[in-house]
Amino acid sequence: MAPGGLLHLATDWADYAAHMLAVLDAAPGWSNCVGAGMAAPRPAWRIATRFEQRGLRQGHGVWDFLYRHQAD
């Protein structure tokens, strides 16, 4: 990815969210846009999928992560 590129990930699985956070926070060249160890608020531009809506009905949380690619 080009420097300055934005990676957006979202999940309703807590274990997957924790894994993504651990891997990306430790990955060289990536910066968490809201701070290490933090999930981002759901961006207004992200449409809620039917999977997300189902997860919310089942009481799952939803985690969004925004990472910026830094120059090497």
From TrEMBL:
**Which of UniProt's keywords are assigned here?**
Methyltransferase, S-adenosyl-L-methionine, Transferase, tRNA processing
List the InterPro entries hit by this protein, alphabetically: SAM-dependent_MTases_sf, tRNA_(Gua-N-7)_MeTrfase_Trmb
Q: Does the keyword Transferase apply?
A: yes
What reactions does this protein catalyze? Answer: guanosine(46) in tRNA + S-adenosyl-L-methionine = N(7)-methylguanosine(46) in tRNA + S-adenosyl-L-homocysteine
Q: Which GO terms describe its molecular function?
A: tRNA (guanine(46)-N7)-methyltransferase activity
Query: What is an example of a Pfam family matching this protein?
Result: Methyltransf_4
Instruction: Tell me its EC number(s), please.
Output: 2.1.1.33
**What protein am I looking at?**
tRNA (guanine(46)-N(7))-methyltransferase
